[in-house]
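Appendix B, record 7
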Amino acid sequence: QIQLVESGGGLVQPGGSLRLSCSASGALFDLYTVGWYRQTPGAQRELVAIIRQKTFETFYTPSVKDRFTVSRDDARKTVSLQMNNLKFEDTAVYYCTAGSWTRLPDYYGQGTQVTVSS
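Structure tokens (predicted):
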């Protein structure tokens, strides 16, 4: 069992930056692929970025590649998402996740709102 708590969401203008952080509690954080999903009203949750356990291999959805950076600190049990050059379409609730590299996540945080607006 693992619990995830996000922080760092908010309101930002287009072109701005935000950094999301997620703290985990529970055992075996370093054995999970962790990362971020997002969801807008009426839509399914979509993968944003994930980082694999042990290898730290990363995967990004194409729309955020070269703008977002996912990182993890296993000693602190944290995962972060640095978001640069934010666009209107990045507006969503962002969820910290933990699970497998090849499946949908097993665990989600409660979510944090990111709003990109002028």
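Remarks on this record: The chain has a mean pLDDT of 96. Residues 38 and 94 are 4 Å apart (CA to CA).
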